[in-house]
Prior knowledge:
Blueprint: E1 10-13, H1 17-29, E2 34-37, H2 40-49, E3 54-58, E4 60-61, E5 64-65, H3 66-74, E6 84-88, H4 95-101, E7 105-108, H5 113-149, H6 157-172, E8 176-183, E9 186-194, H7 196-206, E10 221-223, E11 236-243, E12 246-254, H8 267-308, E13 312-321, E14 327-336, H9 342-351, H10 355-369, E15 378-383, H11 385-390, H12 392-400, E16 407-411, H13 420-428, E17 434-441, H14 445-454, E18 458-461, H15 463-466, H16 473-488, E19 492-496, H17 501-509, E20 514-516
Parallel strand pairs: 1-2, 1-3, 3-6, 6-7, 14-15, 15-16, 16-17, 17-18, 18-19, 19-20
Antiparallel strand pairs: 4-5, 8-9, 8-12, 10-11, 11-12, 13-14, 13-20
Helix pairs in contact: 1-5, 5-8, 6-8, 9-10, 10-12
Amino acid sequence: MSGRPPDLPVLVVDDEPVDRMFATMALQLAGFATVEATTVAEAEAVLASRPVVAVVLDDQMPGGRGIDLISSLRSDERTATLPVILVTGSDRIDLRTGLSAGATDYLVKPVDADELVSRVFAHLESQSRWFDAIGAELRRRAHVMALLAAVDQGPTTDAVAERLCRVLHAELGLDGAAIVRGDAGGLSVLAACGQPRWTAAIERMVAVPGAAFAGRLDHPWVEHAGRGLVAPPVVTALSPLRVKDSVFGLLVLGGGQHTTTLGAAATADGLLAQTVDFGLVVARVLGGALERDASRRAGQRELLATIRERRFFPVFQPIIDLRTRAVAGYEALTRFDDETPPNERFADAARCGLGPQLELATMAAAVDAARGLRGDAFISLNVSPDLVLTHADEIREILDDEGERPVVLELTEHEEVPDYDAFRVAIDGLRPRVRLSVDDAGAGFASLRHIVQLGPDYVKLDRSWVSGIDQDPTRQALVAGLAHFTRQTAATLIAEGIETEAERDKIEELDVAFGQGYLLGRPEAV
């Protein structure tokens, strides 16, 4: 308020005209707007029709006592905190009764004008400070909730929990914060941060048999220092975390001197309220991580079954020497029994951490099936850089089972090579039988970098540059440049995605050595 009367009026309720006029004039001279009532019923009508900032109330009036009006005000959430100054004759009322009914203050008749104004000002200032404190607390909680909701999703639930705990501990100034996983079998700590004594207490808590928490995971509660199940060195509040109406754990906050801005007396209650509020956001963020973990585990189980039971088969698409029309090689491709697109299945495997296992399994299947191919044309096997860098020995073992047929490892443009020197060493360890091809040339900067850094034996022209090349001088110029580059570097250029005779004729005219596409041969099983 800063000493300035508010715009809303003060309600003066008194059946005595002189007393009512006196109180009204004193307040108006101090700058307050006023509204009057002579009975409890009139006062209730005024309060029902308009807001007021305070009530100056005579305790005895016809048709009802002032205390009855106070009780009515305190039972309505709109007026529950409204300042009420009870005016009474000292011999006509038990002041304890008035104050216990909810009066904010009292004055004894005859009332001094300055004292009346000062009391009204004081209570409005106090209420304003209280509202400011509540507003600041609500803004702080909203800020923390926004930070929690914006926490980056980590690779695991534990990583997400750790980030959430760090936000709570840093922003709230608590002694500690922890997220505990709980079920009928017991508890386990997903993440905890804070003072060493407090985190040690959390570790002791999860060692308590699960039966001790039976029936308690559904409701928030407070543990006081030295007592209860947690027995922490500080006050601790615990609130259940729910996802889809199922409790999966607890948010645990350890209090201290700065638990709440509302004062030390409210420490336990304030801490519990924060734990419940923040627990809702924590549960929502963690619930998403738990669902992703569950989905990842289900995907891993499905992929492991796919690998174990070989729910896939290889097909081979011919690569044609455009000068002789002979088959120069075959690209091995994988088809899945459930008709899932291969790029989706391999991407799922990479997300689940099973990318190398699926690549090795499909490679082995392709090498095994390639024994049925006629002639000595090479087979081209798609590989990721990670597979070559981390599983070169397994690749060598698989290729040793193939025989004498030449093998080309085809590196896709879409995968980064983290260490070109290490990659070259790994490929050199597989030579001379194994040669290298870079796929999707022209589709992006990465493929050109692969070509310059790795010096491949084959360069595959991305199909986006082949489609409609007979009608597009820009595509023709780029392909002519790549054809010249590969001739100068002793590499062989392969155009993939040839689907029309016009495209094939233009590709030949541009002196591209090899071609691949539906016009020349579709992928088929041996």
